[in-house]
Specification:
Length: 554
């Protein structure tokens, strides 16, 4: 029998806070419709693909007479994609709103992601089961998966499963890809007049599912607080031992929101921002010099220690590295891969590579540590391409910096000691106990998703805004998922997708970082956030991210 710790027991009993207008009781919540919407780009193409769900208005819930028609609701819920703290509370909020409206309402949880819907693998929730997962991390309440809902055959199966159970709605909890799938499924259901609604909820610790409407994806707060605690601990250790440089890679392949938030929380000596690397077209050598400058200046001041934060996907933003990857993919296309793998030694393989790459890409390849060189050729995805996300960029940059420092030592401009240590913080944050913010936000998203269902909306994203304020002042509503979409080239085809939000280099969070990083690079200005706090003063326990506070001018 599993032992429940005192913190677990206390968190199970925590009552999440709802936005003020959702506290009045289901019967006293009315809806206010705004203006018609359009997609962020490619309006004609998106409209053509979503004729039944495009252009709908944004909506806001307010105190007033509930005018929705009374009917029994049978709702399915799916957790899709990577885990994010707070997912359980979305399910709990949805369940509580369903049952508060009518105890006969039913919530089915489809297991292991979208595949559970296609395979009709589900559990019917009841109080006893739900109560085990309140305010807890992880997605183990029903599991998650990465199956995409994108083909006519899949949609037809989903419609049959929905019909079998009498589903009135499906809630898909996921990131940009998952909510894109939700939009496509919603359109299919509308076009085929199934009567089944689809509602999405914005999840991803990467923080790249955000825009003028979605201020923050859930899980970002908890994950970055978890990583920042660990980075702060490392900074204190570095400042105690005074002999190590720590290179810390953090999750975030397509955007650097996690890295930037952790830097704002902990004030490290160096933090790379992938979007800036791309904007400035920085080379690997330039990045290595940038980090080496901090190491050198600190060594001149007798400080042979420091901390550098590296975004997971930064190498993909280095133009010369992207060209190298493209050439490697071409080099090993088709039967050439078998020819390469048949070579017995790395020396032979290196000659094969040297013969196949352009002079410019070979120059980039040559400066890489041998372990990284080999990794580029050993790890392939199902399409035969390099899996860039598996590159140990923290080790790559520490090796490049070490080489730069040796050059400077020979030139007499560097006389310090450089002892690097490496860390990767990713899975440590994905299933952490959600912060009060994420517990409240996620519960509100789930509760709000039911309100969207009750009022008959389809193809909408559950939306809670004004998040930098106390929960009482949060605003609940919804927006058409199509509003966030544009066309992008995926696997050789133009596809409608939700636009990823990258770090804005003219945004307030980056500007604040930019204004301070030169001082942080030389000084020991570390801050130590400590562990997530659940009980105590509001200003400590309900603290929002530095990113959100800066964006809102607080």
């Amino acid at each position: 029998m599993a032992v429940i710790t005192p913190l677990q027991k206390a968190r199970l009993q925590y009552a999440p806070k709802l936005p003020g207008m959702l506290r009045h009781g289901i019967s006293e919540i009315c809806v206010k419709e705004g203006e018609a919407t359009q997609s962020v780009a490619d309006q004609e193409k998106i409209h053509a693909l979503f004729p039944n769900t495009y252009g709908k208005p944004e909506i806001t819930f307010e105190k007033g007479q509930n005018t929705s028609p009374a009917k029994k609701q049978v709702v399915g819920v799916i957790l899709s994609g990577g885990q994010a703290p707070g997912g359980h509370n979305v399910v709990c909020g949805l369940y509580d709103a369903l049952k508060a409206t009518d105890s006969a309402n039913v919530l089915l949880g489809f297991r292991n992601g979208p595949s559970g819907l296609l395979e009709d693998d589900y559990i019917e929730f009841d109080d006893a089961y739900i109560d085990q997962f309140r305010n807890t991390g992880g997605f183990d309440i029903i599991g998650s998966g990465r199956t995409k809902l994108e083909t006519e055959e899949q949609f037809a199966v989903a419609a049959e499963v929905a019909k079998k159970h009498g589903l009135t709605a499906i809630v898909i909890i996921g990131g940009d890809d998952s909510n894109t799938n939700a939009a496509v499924l919603a359109e299919y259901f509308a076009a085929h007049e199934t009567g089944v609604q689809v509602i999405g909820c914005p999840k991803t610790i990467d923080g790249d599912l955000k825009n003028e409407d979605i201020e923050c994806s859930f899980g970002f707060d908890t994950a970055t607080k978890t990583y920042s605690e660990l980075i702060g601990n490392i900074e204190r250790d570095a400042n105690s031992a005074k002999k190590y440089w720590h290179f810390v890679k953090v999750m975030g392949r397509s955007a650097s929101h996690v890295a930037l938030e952790c830097a704002l929380e902990t004030q490290p000596n160096v933090c790379l921002i992938s979007e800036e690397v791309a904007a400035k077209k920085m080379s690997l050598s330039q990045i290595a010099d940038y980090i080496a400058d901090s190491v050198n200046k600190r060594a001149d001041n007798g400080m042979n220690f420091g901390v550098a934060i590296i975004p997971e996907g930064v190498v993909e933003f280095v133009p010369e590295f992207s060209v190298l990857i493209a050439e490697i993919n071409e080099l090993l296309a088709g039967s050439k891969a078998d020819e390469f793998n048949a070579l017995a030694s790395w020396k032979e393989k290196y000659a094969f590579i040297e013969n196949g790459l352009t002079k410019e890409s070979m120059a980039v390849f040559a400066i890489l540590p041998e372990t990284i060189q080999q990794q580029l050729f050993l790890e392939r995805d199902p399409h035969g391409n390099v899996q860039v996300s598996l590159i140990e960029s923290e080790k790559l940059f520490s090796a490049l910096v070490k080489a730069k420092l040796e050059e400077r030592r020979k030139a007499g401009t560097y006389k310090g000691k450089f002892s690097p240590l490496h860390h990767f913080f990713g899975y440590e944050g994905r299933c952490a106990f959600p912060s009060n913010f994420d517990a409240d936000y996620c519960y509100s998203l789930g509760y709000n998703a039911f309100m969207l269902i009750q009022y008959g909306y389809n193809g909408y994203l559950s939306k809670i805004s004004n998040l930098s304020k106390p929960a009482e002042e949060w605003v609940a509503g919804g927006m058409p998922i199509t509003k966030m979409m544009n066309m992008e080239r995926r696997h050789g085809e133009d596809k409608p997708v939700i636009r990823k939000a990258l770090v804005e280099l003219d945004g307030k969070p980056f500007r604040f970082f930019e204004a301070n990083r030169e001082a942080w690079a030389v000084e020991t200005a570390y801050t130590y956030p400590g562990a997530i706090q659940y009980y105590g003063p509001t200003e400590v326990c309900d603290l929002t991210t530095r990113t959100l506070a800066l964006e809102k001018g607080e």
